[in-house]
Specification:
This protein is mostly helical. The protein is about 60% helix and about 5% strand. It folds into two domains: about 100 residues, no CATH class; about 120 residues, no CATH class.
C-alpha cells in the first residue's frame, strides 16, 4: 500500500500527459499543404511555355511549404525538359544558325541574360525567350542549341530543403560547364571523378528523392566517361590501346586520396587500376571483361 501511494503522483502525471493532445497545425498551414503543388501541376497541361510557370513560382515562393516547393521545382524541371524537345527546333534553321554565328562566333559566353545586339527581330526574340524560359545557348559540332540552365533555380535556395539545394547545385555544375563538346571531354579528369562521387553520395544520402533519376542518370554518365572515355577522348588510344596518360595520373591520385572510402565507385576504380597495372595500362580482354562486370555502359 505504501508503495502504491508513493507511485500515485507519478501515475497521475503520466495519465494526464497521455491525455494531452498534440497541438494541431494552424488551419492556414493545413490548407497550404499540397495546395500549391496541386495548383501548379493543374497549370502544366495548359501552359504555353516555362515562363508562365516560373511566374507562378515567383509569386508564391515565400508561401509554399518546403516539401511542396521541392516537388514543384522537380515538376518544373520535367516540364522544361519536355518543352525543350519542341522549342529547340526553332534553332535548326540555317538562317538562325548563320545570324547567331555572325554575332557569337564560337564564343557563347558573349550572351548574358539573353542580351545580344541582334538586328533580326525574330532571332532576337528567340534568344530572349530562351533565357526567359530557363534555358541557355550552347554550341557543339558547329551548331547552336538551347540547353536547360539549372542555375536559374539557385535564386530559390532559401526556400529549398537541404536535399533539393544539393540537387540544384549538382545539376547547376552540369549546365555551367558541360563535360563534353563535340564528343570530346572538356573538363579535367579530376572534375569527372569529383562529379561522379558527388552524384553517388547524393543517391546514398537521399534515397527516394523526388528528382533521383536526374542524379542517377548523371552518375551513369560519369561512370561511362571514367571507364570508357568518349568518342573523341577515348580512355584508350584507338590504335595503340594505351591508356590516356592524364586519366591515369588523375585516377591514381584519386584512389590514393583520403576520404570516400565507402564509395563503391572509388573501390571499383582502385580495382580497375590494379587490373590495368597487370596489363601494362593497355586495353586487353581482361581489362574489357572487368569493365563489363563492374562498369557496364548504361548511359
Amino acid at each position: 500500500m505504501k508503495l502504491y501511494k508513493a507511485l500515485l503522483p507519478l501515475l497521475m502525471v503520466l495519465i494526464m500527459a497521455s491525455c494531452v493532445k498534440s497541438p494541431d497545425l494552424p488551419k492556414e498551414q493545413k490548407e497550404s499543404e499540397g495546395k500549391y503543388y496541386t495548383e501548379f501541376t493543374s497549370m502544366i497541361p495548359e501552359a504555353k511555355n516555362p515562363k508562365e510557370l516560373f511566374s507562378y513560382i515567383d509569386q508564391h515562393a515565400g508561401d509554399i511549404p518546403r516539401d511542396d516547393f521541392t516537388k514543384i521545382i522537380i515538376a518544373q524541371i520535367n516540364y522544361q525538359d519536355s518543352f525543350l524537345k519542341t522549342f529547340e527546333e526553332n534553332y535548326f534553321s540555317q538562317s538562325v544558325q548563320e545570324i547567331l554565328y555572325n554575332v557569337l562566333g564560337n564564343d557563347t559566353s558573349k550572351i548574358e541574360n539573353g542580351a545580344l545586339d541582334i538586328e533580326n527581330k525574330e532571332v532576337a526574340d528567340l534568344v530572349k525567350a530562351t533565357y526567359e524560359y530557363g534555358y541557355r545557348i550552347d554550341m557543339s559540332e558547329g551548331m547552336y542549341f538551347p540547353i536547360l540552365d539549372y542555375g536559374v533555380y539557385k535564386k530559390y535556395k532559401e526556400y529549398l530543403n537541404e536535399d533539393a539545394l544539393e540537387f540544384i547545385e549538382i545539376l547547376s555544375a552540369e549546365s555551367d560547364k558541360v563535360p563534353l563538346k563535340d564528343a570530346a571531354l572538356v573538363i579535367p579528369y579530376e572534375e569527372v571523378l569529383n562529379r561522379a562521387i558527388r552524384c553517388e553520395s547524393f543517391l546514398k544520402k537521399y534515397p527516394g528523392f523526388e528528382g533521383e533519376k536526374f542524379i542517377s542518370d548523371l552518375f551513369e554518365k560519369y561512370q561511362a566517361i571514367t571507364f570508357y572515355g568518349s568518342n573523341n577522348t577515348p580512355l584508350f588510344d584507338y590504335g595503340t590501346k594505351e591508356m590516356n596518360e592524364k586519366a591515369k595520373e588523375a585516377y591514381q591520385s584519386f584512389v590514393k586520396s583520403i576520404g570516400n572510402e565507402n564509395s563503391e565507385f572509388k573501390k571499383n576504380l582502385r580495382l580497375f587500376l590494379e587490373v590495368l597495372a597487370k596489363n601494362g595500362y593497355k586495353l586487353t580482354g581482361e581489362v574489357d571483361d572487368f569493365r563489363d562486370i563492374k562498369a557496364p555502359i548504361k548511359y
